[in-house]
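Let's practice the habit of predicting before peeking. Look at the sequence and jot down your guess about where helices and strands might fall. Then scroll down.
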Amino acid sequence: MSDKKLTAKGTKAAGGKKAPVSRTAKLDPAVAEREQWATLRPSMKVEQAMAYDMDGTYRTKALVSHSLFGLGVVTCLAGTRKMEVLFEEGKKLLRCH
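Done guessing? Here is the structure:
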């Protein structure tokens, strides 16, 4: 067997250790959500936001005004009776009808 280091993923280098695998740095989800918020915020019209109601019916991209979290935009409907809303502080999973 040779003492040369192998660079293929999952192969072993000299000394029986795995060869290092380069990885790209992942963006922190909270940072990504804040950046998404900053991009969307200028186009939001506060006067069109619906007051959040647990029994309300919502669509994707609808603006929601929540008493605790503030202004948000519905990013997706997550299963039955739930929706994901992006607020300035990040995404929240809220109940809906």
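How did you do? The chain has a mean pLDDT of 84.
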